[in-house]
């Protein structure tokens, strides 16, 4: 089912160049709304700046086929979350993160705050939107969040082929026959079986793979092997809904391709 309303958030730089076109491609049903949005940091910005931004958004919206613009003020996460709720948006599309080496170590990035605040999945778009996604790879911990990401990916890319992989990271090196390793594998297989019973999951090309190793290495190998053009994953790890998983943070800050992040419903 396509999205009836999509928010395309842009900072009007090259980092967001693919956002309007991708959002337009995803809002396929007749009458679907694509809102092109820019968030000013605070209310103190001069009126001239707002006028210039509105003019720039209007030009971009016209070129991309968007059917509305908004200039918001305040903290980006809260502002976009409020708009998404008001517009009943099914998706927020963002561009690439602007790296700030020192600040990124000390606080959440703007992108991370948006994902935590958003009432809907968030897509980080960097690929040219000439064609729909073809190969979707779920990096899964078998949590409700990763199930939500896969279900959302099926809405983004209904004609894609879907794959899932789980990196098994036991406390020590994995060894077949080892009691600890076998117990970890058995636990992961039980979690996989429960995950596959989640209502609404799209059909997978093969059962989710459970591969011993570090999550970065396992995902990178499988992504390259598949030529995956969309990676999806759950936002959180553990039980704190206000905390991003470490891997989600790493992937969002340096995405190897387009990335979809979703929270548990």
Automatic annotation (TrEMBL):
InterPro entries: Rossmann-like_a/b/a_fold (IPR014729), UspA (IPR006016). Residues 5-124, 133-263 form the UspA domain. It comes from the Bacteria. Belongs to the universal stress protein A family. This is Universal stress protein. It comes from Pararhodobacter zhoushanensis.
